[in-house]
Amino acid sequence: MERRPILSLKTGLLFLLPALIFITIFLIFPFLWILGVSFTNQTLTGKGALSPEFVGLANYARLFNFETWLTRGNFGNALVITAQFVLGSALIGQVGLGLALAVAFYRRKGIVREFVYTLVILAWIIPDVVVAFSWIAFLDRDFGTLNQILSAIGLGRPDWQLQQSLLSIIIFNTWRGTAFSMLLFSSALATIPPSYLETAEVAGASAFQKLRDILLPLLRGHILTDLILITLWTFNTFTPFLITGGGPAYRTELVSIYTWRVAFQFFEFGQGGAIAVVVMMINFVLALAYLAMLRRQAVYT
Amino acid sequence: MRRLRKFAGSVLFYLFVIFVTAFYALPLLWLVFTPFNPRATLAVEIPAQPTLDNFREVFGNTFAMRAIGQNNLILATGTMVGVTLIATLTAYALSRARVPGRDYLSYILILFSSVVTGTAAMVPIFLIISAMRLIDTHLGVILVFIGGYVPSAIFIMRDFVDGIPRSYEESALVSGATPWRVFLDVALPLVRPGMMVIAIWAFVHAWGAFLVPFVLLRSPENMPASTAIYSFYTEAGTPNITLVSAYSLLYALPVLVLYLLVNWRYGFRFFGGIKR
Fold it and tell me: Which of A10, B81, B83, B210 has the largest count of CB atoms under 10 Å?
């Protein structure tokens, strides 16, 4: 027999009310509002501010104008840069390094682990602008620590901000976000019964075999969860703006920075709205893919 | 053979540790040394004569101090209180009342909050906050923070509430207490650790956030440290590195202290359903 609930449905809904109000105003409503705005020529000042007109799909047509699409400072260009950024810093960087860290410190305790974990977590929790300034100093061509080291071992002084700007923010974002994957994989590994590995060791399995045949299959679900969350976050992050400002010459203009430039530097809300809708659609597809994978996972287990 | 393999494994492990330590520590060295250097530049120099003068300059700068001591504090505290109250109420209701679809609700919420996020979400949110006449107010920023953080907070809180036994609440109900009294006097004391976690989590996020205040706040006297720091220029028009470095450390300090507190009190680990 199921127990009587402690709260009646009516009281329960009353408790839910504040959250529902906030979620409606700041999650559901923005989505609908911006869908509407994206079909208008609304701007902050001037004629478009007072009486925005319905322009149909004009903003979307401008966004997907394939003649200029891939040229600098346009949407396609931003998408291509973002794809490289997500592939490099999220899929390879954060998930790869996070997995490597979790596996390397699996069944290890003590001061080395505490020290390394603390460093990685610090990089994750220090405020955005603080790490951004620290990285600007680190990457500086003439005075930065990185080039001091490189030139000391005879590798010269590359201008990271100018010549390797995309690589710079990919490395930065790997550094910034790996902690999440590391912690997720560590807590997942901690739930694996030691007997699994002990049996394999008795049978003479090598470290690589243990990783490939025991740890990785057991981590599959967590890797999927991690991949999709990290992809969503990396796709939407704005922090690289604090290091490069999207430059030089739009070479690090991620979709998030492009959106900001159109909507908040030029205050073209109609056009910015169209971008926002497309970005949210991409987010939505990623989230759906995640749900589908979770469900498949649930069928297997 | 076995010992050789073990030895090779150790060497590989320590090489990896050295690499990771260097990768993580080197970019932060600047933040450690420069604030104490009388001639602060972008270079990392261990100061020959460490000084606290840079901090004295920061403390003497009313604009900088108001940003951190007043604006940041208002934004982070307001967000913390709002998020903690709302998430606790919601998680409790989802756990204790038979709301239809309650098991999916927190998942849907967290997914939806990852869809309506970042700069894309700031476009409509700017327009909504404009329509509410809350542009350039702390209240506007706090409301947006609460809206953005509440879904994850509910997700984390749900685990804590589900973890406390129902029997205390049941016996209180039997002795005639109202649901509201049961929540306040019986359930709340039991979920206090969860509320602490949520509160610290929300505070740290709001404290460090850049994008929302950057878009919604206009006048310098309302700005928190994350945007105020960009107005620290010398008379020559270059960034005032002395001020920026000392201020950065000061600004990061509460986050570091809270991290140590959480690590010592609870152990830094994952809360909530992510561990499945």
Answer: B83
Q: How far is A295 from chain B (nearest CA, A)?
A: 13
| Token representation of residue A145 | 């620590």
Question: How many Cβ atoms sit within 10 Å of the Cβ of residue B222?
Answer: 22
- Give the A:B interface size as CB pairs under 8 Å: 287
Neighbours of B45 (CB within 10 A): 14
- Minimum-distance CB partner of B99 among A12, A225, A257: A12
How far is residue B97's CA from residue A13's CA, in Å, rounded to a whole number? 8
Please indicate whether, in this complex, the C-beta atoms of A260 and B225 are within 8 angstroms of each other: no
A24-35 pLDDT tens trace: 898 888 889 899
Please answer yes or no on whether A145 and B30 come within 8 Å at the CB atom: yes
The answer to whether the bond into A248 is cis (omega within 30° of 0) is: yes
Per residue in A269-298, pLDDT (tens digit) is 888 899 999 999 999 998 888 778 777 765
Residue B165 phi, psi dihedral angles, 5° rounding: -65, 145
Chain-chain contact of A273 with B119 (C-beta, under 8 angstroms): no
pLDDT tens-place string over residues B62-95: 888 889 989 999 999 999 999 999 999 999 999 8
Which residues in chain A touch residue B151, judged by CB atoms under 8 angstroms apart?
23, 27
Residue A108: closest CA among chain B residues belongs to which residue?
B13
- Taking the C-alpha atoms of residue B202 and residue B198, their distance in angstroms, rounded to an integer, is 6
Instruction: Using CA atoms of A245, A251, A252, A257 in order, give the dihedral in degrees to the nearest 10.
Output: 60
Reduced to 3 states (helix: H, G, I; strand: E, B; else coil), residue B177 is coil
> Model's pTM, two decimal places?
0.89
